[in-house]
Design goal:
The protein is mainly α and 106 residues long. The chain has one domain. It contains 2 helices and no strands. It starts with a helix and ends with a helix. The relative contact order is 0.03.
């Protein structure tokens, strides 16, 4: 009798395990929905990475343009400084000549 009750217990446990391990149609649908949701989230993540990379590349291009503009502004400033030096030298030369003229009149 003990053998029968052990066999019945093992059989009942096996049946319970089998029943609980089999997914119901509702469980399969739920799992499929969750899988689709996870796929959609991963797709959104991939798109977010792509969009982020595109924005980052545009910002890099803007930074290059700003750097270029700053270099152009720096070049323009250097040209202006060169012109100022040249004008100052010319005016100083004129003053030196005027000073020489004054000396010659002594």
């Amino acid at each position: 009798m003990k053998t029968n009750s052990i066999a019945a217990l093992v059989s009942a446990s096996a049946i319970a395990l089998f029943v609980t391990s089999c997914d119901s149609k509702q469980e399969q649908v739920r799992e499929e929905q969750l899988e689709q949701k996870a796929d959609a989230i991963e797709t959104n993540a991939d798109q977010l990475r792509k969009d982020g990379e595109n924005v980052a590349e545009m910002k890099d291009a803007d930074a290059d343009a700003i750097r270029k503009n700053n270099e152009n502004a720096a070049d323009a400033t250097e040209s202006s400084a060169d012109a100022t030096r040249k004008n100052a030298d010319q005016r100083a030369d004129q003053l030196d000549e005027a000073a020489d003229d004054v000396r010659e009149k002594k």
